[in-house]
Amino acid sequence: MILGIGTDLANIERIESTIARFGPRFLDRVFTPREQAKAQSRAHGLAATYAKRWAAKEACSKALGTGLRMGIAWKDMAVTNLRSGQPIMHLTGWAAERLAHMTPPGHRAVVHVTLTDDHPWAQAFVVIEAVALDSPNPTELMRPPAPLP
Question: Is 147 domain-assigned?
Fold first, then answer.
């Protein structure tokens, strides 16, 4: 069952000018060290990387039904990538507490996130799903079937 849906559109140039104006003060307030390392590893698209993560945090706060003004800290939501490149959202602090409160008994929450950019825009969608505890883990479903005897 869907618990929440959020989307956000961020202007890459606005994020770039904010970084130029406030530098580490802005980056340290909004992004985790791991998110900053990911952005710094990209020679081209540094501002786009930050803008996509900004949009993901905004979208996640909306999917949680709170927005950023109701107690969630920027760094309570962090985007990393699997080896495949798929973005994933990590929640800590008040965001994790809110997610736990939203999740019905007998279920686990799965946060789906997708990111895209087309200069000057970065966009994120977040869908929070409640999955029954007795449902298979999605990573189990991705394994190739065993060969037939």
Answer: no
Residues belonging to the chain: 149
Is residue 124 a part of any domain in this protein? yes
Task: Give the sign of the dihedral formed by CA 94, CA 98, CA 103, CA 106.
Answer: positive
User: What is d(CA 65, CA 98) in angstroms, rounded to the nearest whole number?
Assistant: 9
Q: What is the pLDDT of residues 107-133, one digit of tens each?
A: 999 999 999 999 999 999 999 999 999
Per the structure, the complete domain to which residue 67 belongs is given by: 2-138
Which is nearest to 120 in space by CA: 55, 58, 56? Answer: 55
Residue 143 maps to a domain: no
User: Using one digit for the tens of pLDDT, what is the confidence trace for 35-57?
Assistant: 999 999 987 779 999 999 999 99
Candidates 73, 107, 65, 106; CA nearest to 91 is 73
